[in-house]
């Protein structure tokens, strides 16, 4: 009956529950409250309940690349170009953009990385005069400005960047480095589904 009730929980929650209950049973045994050493066995994985990872379809964002007229449009195209999160964008400075080589240079926690920028973005963005005002704002402000321009979230736009890079043939390690990730785990699903 106990194991049957656990089946409705996620595998991680099941494991935590069994572990906690086994620790309690061990405590009771060592305190001589119960006479037999009891232990609950692990729950077998139910393959039917395995969560399927959904990868969104790649979309056409060419309409985003018109003359930049709003902060939201700049943010949307910046995320599509670089895969940066709003919290990373908050820490940018206009001097991080190298328009001569169409690169965005980022120095985060002592690690440097250079993200190439497509020419269609560079020619529209480099004429902006006051981007440092935008970069100094909070994540909530950036999310609000993005929402004024598009229904796509920052996360969805970042996924589009990832999918474009996978389609272009970048390796999982190159993409992990471009995004500033410490591991490749979060990228594996894209490489399994798109390649």
Automatic annotation (TrEMBL):
Limits of the Tyr recombinase domain: 45-195
Keyword Nucleotide-binding annotated: no
Gene3D superfamilies, alphabetized: Intergrase catalytic core (1.10.443.10)
InterPro entries from the UniProt entry: DNA_brk_join_enz, Integrase-like_cat_sf, Integrase_catalytic
Keywords per UniProt: DNA recombination
A molecular function (GO) term: DNA binding
One GO-annotated biological process of the protein: DNA integration
Protein name from the UniProt record: Integrase
């Amino acid at each position: 009956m106990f194991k049957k009730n656990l089946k409705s929980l996620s595998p991680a929650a099941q494991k935590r529950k069994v572990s906690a209950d086994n620790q309690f049973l061990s405590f009771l045994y060592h305190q001589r409250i119960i006479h037999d050493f009891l232990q609950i066995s692990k729950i077998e994985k139910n393959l039917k309940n395995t969560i399927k990872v959904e990868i969104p379809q790649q979309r056409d964002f060419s309409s985003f690349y018109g003359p930049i007229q709003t902060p939201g449009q700049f943010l949307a195209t910046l995320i599509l170009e670089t895969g940066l999160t709003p919290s990373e964008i908050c820490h940018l400075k206009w001097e991080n953009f190298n328009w001569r080589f169409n690169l965005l240079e980022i120095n985060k926690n002592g690690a440097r990385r250079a993200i190439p920028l497509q020419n269609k973005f560079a020619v529209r963005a480099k004429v902006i005069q006051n981007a440092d005002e935008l970069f100094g704002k909070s994540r909530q402000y950036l999310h609000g400005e993005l929402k004024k321009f598009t229904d796509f979230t920052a996360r969805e736009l970042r996924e589009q960047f990832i999918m474009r890079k996978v389609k272009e043939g970048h390796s999982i390690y190159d993409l992990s480095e471009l995004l500033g990730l410490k591991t490749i785990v979060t990228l594996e699903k894209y490489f399994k589904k798109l390649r």
